[in-house]
Amino acid sequence: MTFVFVLVSIAILVLLIVWAKLNPFLAFLIASITGGLLLGLPADQVAKSVQKGMGAMLGDLVIVIVTGAMLGKLVSESGAAQRIAGFLMKIFGEKYITWAMAFTGLIVGIPLFYNVGFVLLVPLAFTVAYQYKLPAVYVGMPLLAALSVTHGFLPPHPSPAALVAQFDANMGLTLFYGFLIAIPTIIIAGPLLAPFLKNIKSQPLKTFQAEPKPESELPGIGNSIFTALLPVILLIGTTALSLNISPEDPLSPIINFIADPGVVMLVSLFYATFSLGIFRKTNMVTLMDIYTIATKDVSMILLIVAGAGALKQIFTDTGVSLTIAESLQTWDIHPLILAWMITAVIRVCVGSATVAGLTTAGIIAPLVTTMNVDPNLLVLSIGAGSLMFSHFNDGGFWMYKEFFNVSIKDTLKSWSLMETIVAVSGLIGVLILDLFV
């Protein structure tokens, strides 16, 4: 009956989100409490498990997610994102415009959360499409593919960052492997797919066209790119150092301290506060207002992550996770493929990439210790599965449809197709990388 009760818990989660339209945080709480009671956890322990799971998850992630949101908001408000987009357009030119949009999405998408990146960059894509008299979907799809990939694959975005914490993976290595997979995935789902979408009719509303800041008000290109990529530079750099230095070396504790994701994001935010703020004559009150708004933007994400931590803790405290892991070992299927499949099914049912990824993590977390699987690749496999076939129950589906002003049929033929290609290409990349690491 254990598996039945687990399925009932997940079914309750899915139904509450999809059918009852309940807030995902509340749905996670109800599913967690129900699951705990069904699985035999004493009633007085259920609440404690929920609180423990929420606290443990947020303890690992709250600094990363909040400081990441603040950094992304500052990159947006300062004009750094606009500067990067304009610079790449000049380099690539009209002939390779789709490549310029893909690289813009990749670079700017690293510090920006998906919804913020969408709202910020899609109007820029419309402006570019209008300027060069090109189809909006053709210009915008590479940008959206890049934003989607960074959202699903690369820390410090919420889902991959949470998965790194749950699987005790290395954030720097996950980020490095993520880039190795992300770049070809973006190319396939972006510049290579875009020419096949040229005939899709799109009439973006003028309301959504960007009103760019004057050139004189934008930060320099070197400052913009370095500040946006500083978390990546620090994470990968400190990881490389830690792998090539002895634990007995006096510098080892210092490197490990700087390599902590929370410290990396705090240092990056501190640097950005000066490079994009104070040094450009933005006063501290204005900067703190930007950071306050950014925190409000991610408050619901934090609650969803906490809710997922509660469900995971219920599965752990009832012993279900170990039972599932032991059973899955008998399945004649690669654990990375299994993780991707479970996540993809939940994603199609629920619509949320974050919910799908974190729910899967709670189910298969014990696989990391009981089976020969790289936790960093497991993070990326789940990240890929969490982007599978976006459709009517995904907010991103409707944002794309309304911003680009396309039909439901064309939304499925373009947006849903792109997301599916990202998911499948990501899995293939993970499996190829698994042969070498």
Automatic annotation (TrEMBL):
Record Pfam families: GntP_permease
Transmembrane segments: 30-47, 54-76, 96-122, 134-154, 174-197, 218-242, 254-279, 300-325, 337-365, 377-400, 415-436
Subcellular location: Cell membrane
Annotated signal sequence range: none
Entries under InterPro entries matching the protein: Glcn_transporter
Domain of life: Bacteria
Bilayer topology annotation: Multi-pass membrane protein
Major subcellular site: membrane
Keywords: Cell membrane, Membrane, Transmembrane, Transmembrane helix, Transport
Similarity comment: Belongs to the GntP permease family.
Record protein name field: Gluconate transporter
